[in-house]
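Run: sequence + FE2/S2 (inorganic) cluster -> complex structure.
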Amino acid sequence: MKQKQCRHMFICVNKKTEKKCCAAFDAENVFEYIKQYVASNREKINQNGRFKVVKTSCLGQCAAGPNIYMTPDNLWYTFSSLEDIDEIIESHVIRGMVVDRLLNKEISDE
Ligand code: FES
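>> structure
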């Protein structure tokens, strides 16, 4: 039986002193929120294959931030609330449906 591909959610928590950065949007706490969400819902989340959330330094798309990059989908999301995060996980990760309203279409591969 072929193993399903592992999906990764990379969340930028980079902090810059002068320019716009993802850390200014509380990204470190959002990362912790996602980790707890995933731990509490592991069985539901893994029904479509393995899933990992990873915090990263700058992803090179600061102006579009705060940024979440999804692989293997090659899609970029932004967010402004924890409700947005819930929607990305419940729709994209669990049901496999892109959250169009949070997609950063200028840098995503569609
Ligand atoms: S600081 Fe997040 S993409 Fe650059």
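>> summary
The longest helix spans residues 27-40. The mean pLDDT is 91.
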